[in-house]
Automatic annotation (TrEMBL):
Residues 2-101 form the GntR C-terminal domain. Transmembrane segments: none annotated. This is GntR C-terminal domain-containing protein. It comes from the Bacteria. The keyword Transcription regulation applies. GO terms for molecular function: DNA binding. Keywords: DNA-binding, Transcription, Transcription regulation.
Amino acid sequence: MADIKAANEALKEQLSAGELGRDEDLAFHDAISHASGNEYFGHLLNEIRKPIVGTVALGLELARDRSSALRTRVVEEHNWIISAISIQDSEGAATYMRYHLFQARAGLVDVHHLNREN
């Protein structure tokens, strides 16, 4: 759990400094993979790493031009995941992770998706 929290804190620091935080974001997901104890999940993450790295970098680059509140939303989403993991709420963690991945995908397709009022 400490590695997951540390990776998210490092991401927060990078974003606050105006950096992309790509490595820190990937470290967060790697830490979750490792903590899951699921070797298949870790193997799968390694297999898809190359396309993911490019996609994460693009998403973070697009987010760079947004307000700091929107850029740090990823940290807030990570915090939701961390909270669910902390109380061993696997369904909650899975739901938050799906939401987080949906937001990342939406940010690539529609950079204004979080600026809309609905």
